[in-house]
Each structure stands twice: as structure tokens, then as C-alpha cells.
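Summary for the steering committee. The consortium agreed at its last meeting that each partner would contribute one worked example illustrating the joint modelling workflow. Our contribution is presented below. We chose a case with several input lines so that the handling of multiple components could be demonstrated. No manual editing was applied between input and output; the record is shown as generated.
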Amino acid sequence: MDENRKEELLTLWMDDGLSSAEREELAPYLAKHPELEAEREEYVRLRDELRSVLPEHVEPPYPEFFNKHLMRQIREEERMERIPAVAEVSGMWSWMRYWMVPAAAAAVVVAFLAGKEMGDRPAGAVATTSGAGYTGELAPGVYSAISSVDVTTWEDPDAGSTVIVLDGLEDIPSSVDLLKTTASLEEGEGSGKTF
Amino acid sequence: MGCALAKDPGKEKIGTLKAQLIYATDEDVEDLGESRKGLSDAEKKVLEESIRKKFKTYWMLGEDQTKILRGYENWTSPMRGSEELMVSFEPKGREGKDGLRLDLELWQSKRKVLKADPVLRKGKHLYIVGPKWRGGQLIIVLELVDLLKE
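What follows is the complete predicted structure of the assembly.
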């Protein structure tokens, strides 16, 4: 069996898509590589997890935030998958990635469709830089994704500081008690790790 | 099989970012508690000169210090335990010996309100004058605490 045919059959096998003739064709290869069954089980587990995380018809409450974190998790999953692929295996994972890439891409597409606010720069959003002493520490790509928010930036060479002022943001409700949160200073991996 | 796992270079720490949240107000504010301190005169002077505005009092509401990883997006919240104001950042490359350009976003109530790509330099501050809260102004202060040599 040539390499392309083997990959095609293995991919179909992973998705329960083999015909009986194809199953017979692949059987000798699977018999020689019983470890593939465990790989398949892991794939099915991952697929089911993805499906449980990505409901197709329910829009998340914060689409943009949801997408941001989801894409981050997908990137990290992909990195984790790539690391052993480089270090340990040359054969098996080389065909596994043909399946993993479309799966990850599909997840991104679902996430994209779920969000109504995707897109970094909405039409009408304009980067604004003004003020004395602007020396380019902020590239022109400074803007708010909210059209009603004006962004002004400047630099103060004497203080060695850069300032971005956002006018028009919604107030944080007074009912939100920022004083109840922790005010500690400890180096960590970042608060995003808690999501 | 049997080989050691390859180390992910993207996980390598290249620096440290400190985020602070300052509450500036002209209202009379009672003591906000032991964990919340006012700014020193020197800190107040630099802040006022930078943002070109003066307030009656300034309070440090929270601080967070986060590793900057070479190839990953990082998150920091100056108010740990709160998702009301969060900053995401990812290094985009060095600028000279002491500068690091970041792809930076500010999130308020889980909504992205700012995207910027500033260069942070050790010992210099980036002030983001953000939303208002309880009649005062919230200011996020970002500082590159250290940047490891390449």
C-alpha cells in the first residue's frame, strides 16, 4: 500500500468512514500497528470534548472574548501536539496532522461564526495620535474597536511615559466592587490562565 | 519513542510585565483599606505630568506581575480575581536593547475596548486612562520590569 493510500484509509478509519472493502484493505496494516487503536480512542475523546465545548446553535454571551480564548486554547493544543511529533515520531503523527489541522480549523470556523464582533478594526475606527512630544513609541495602529470611543495618545519625554486616553468608554457600574478583589503582587503566568 | 520531549521555545520567559490599577478621584474617599495605598508625592507628580490632569487623591487598587512568554499571548489583570479590566499582550519583537513591542489589548467587561502595539521600555510607564468608576477615573499603568538578554 502506498503512503497516500494508507493516509487516506487511516483518516477514514478515524472517522468511521471506511467501507467494508476498505476495512479489509487496511486490516493488515492495523494488525501490524495495534498502538493505533489507542491513538484513535484519544482522537475520539478529543473530538467529543470539542463538540461539548462548541455548541453549534448557542451563541456565547461574549462572542469576541470567547473567540479570543478559544483560539488561544486551540493554538496551545496544537503546540502540545506538535512537540512530541517532532521529538518522538516521524511516521504516525505525520498522517495524524492531516486530520488534526482540519479539526482545529473547523473549531476556529465555528468560533468565528459564533461571534458577531470578530474583526480587529471595524469600519470607521480611526487611530488617533496627538499631543506634543509624540515620538513614535506607539505605532499608528492604536484604536478602539468601539466606534463611539475616541483614542488620544501622547508621550512625555520628561517623564519617560506614554499615555493612551480612552474617551467615551462606558463607566464601570458603581455596584461592581473593585475593592473586593485581591490586590497582591506576585509574578504569575497571567490571569488568563484561570479561564 | 524514548526521546525526551522537545522544549517549547515559546514558553521561554523573556521578561516581566507589571500592571497596576489606579483610582483617581476628586471625591472625598474614606480609607479604602489596608491593602490599598495612596501614591507617593513623587509617583503622583509623574502621573499628573504624564496624563496632564490633576485629581484630589490617587489610590492604588491593585497590582499584578506577569511573565512575558516569547511565543504566547499572556493575560494580566491588575485586579486579581476580577475580570472587569484585563490586558492581553503578546511580544512582537525587540526594539533596541531595552525595548519590547507588544501586541496589546485592553478588555472591559469581556469586551475589547483598545488595541495597540506600544513599545515598552524598562523603567518607563504606559498609562491607559480608561473607564470611570464611582465618580473617579481608572488608570492602568503598565511597566516592563525586566527584559532578559537575547
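The first helix of chain B runs from residue 41 to 51. The helical segments of chain B are 41-51.
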